[in-house]
Amino acid sequence: MSNSPDLTALEVWIEECIAHLRDTDEFEVNRVHEEEFLLLYGLVARVMGYSDAYLRLSSAGLVAEAVVLARAAIEHAVTLQWVFTVDGGVSRFQSAIANDRINHFKNLAAWLDTDELAQQVVALKPPPPGKQLPKFMNMLRDVDQNEFLEMSYHILSQHVHVTHAAVTAFLERGTEGLHIRHTQQYGYHYQSTYIVAVACMLARWVVAKLTSNAGLLKRLDEVSNRLVIPMTLIDGLEPEKKRPGL
Q1: Count of Cβ atoms closer than 10 Å to residue 79 Cβ
Q2: What is the dihedral of CA 94, 97, 99, 104, to 10 degrees?
Q3: Partners of 172 in beta bridges
Q4: How far is CA 110 from CA 114, 118, 126, 141, in A?
Q5: Mean pLDDT rounded to a whole number for the chain
Q6: What pLDDT is attached to residue 69?
Q7: Residues 75-115: pLDDT tens digits?
Q8: Helical (H) or strand (E) element with 171
Q9: Sign of the CA dihedral with 221 first, then 79, 41, and 10 last
């Protein structure tokens, strides 16, 4: 990345985003956006929570383990952006979470093997009709203009799934052959921190739009230019897919 900000600047930005959500007692939300805000707030909160944990693990020297949280943060942020910016995205999210809730409690009833919970599952309100969310990679490709996020997501996934990294991260070559390394090293601390900073920006932009906060949008625009971080992924969408009014 040309003109890249330093690692400290990215971490300061991430901390600012975490503090903003943590320290805001009330959000002023227009009545027309109240239900939507409540629906999407949890995604924003998860982005900030994962980002907070990422910084804590990184500062403790557990950068490779923190990468798992970077991947979770960007997955939630991209999903949030897709739901908010795509025409019909909110209703598809409503349908998806309603179906997911029912499936979760069905599995929970089977796991706990309780008839009482199984009966309560039957009594749950049926989900609304209509399409659910597409698969995550389809959402990502809808909004990812230069495939940067998709590439980043796949690289971060090396430390989430069982891949070659599970072997090579714990081996090093010495003068007498291979040696076991007791802690895994991760050589892309800056890049993963940049992705977390992007996730925070994408989530905070949705908050700014839902609360019609002109001051916050101005702040995000300034940071976006200074840290070379996109405020939103809406420009990656095909025009016919964009939510009206954005």
Answers
A1: 22
A2: -160
A3: 179
A4: 7, 8, 19, 36
A5: 92
A6: 98
A7: 999 999 999 999 999 999 999 998 998 889 889 999 999 88
A8: strand 171-174
A9: negative
